Amino acid sequence: MATKLERSAKLDNVKGFLIILMVFAHFISSLLKWGGAYNAMLFSVINAFHMAAFLMVSGYLSLNRIRNREYGKLFTRCLLPFAFAQLGLFFLFALTNEIDLFYFTESSDQFFLFRPIGPLWYLFAVTLYIPVVIMIEAQKKPVWFSIALIILAALLMGFGHRTMYFRLNKLVCFFPFFYAGYLGAKYRFQEKWQRVWHRNGWGLVLFVLAMALLVRLYDLTHTYINWTGLVSMEDNGRYIEHIKIPSAPYWLLGPLARLLLILVAIVIGIVLIMMMPSQQTILSYLGKYSIYPYVLHWFVLRGIMILKQKQIGGGTLQTVVDFLNQGINVYVFALPGIVLLCFLLASKPVRNIFRPLFEPKWAEEGFRSLESQLKEKQQ
Question: Is pLDDT of 327 > 80?
Answer without folding.
Answer: no
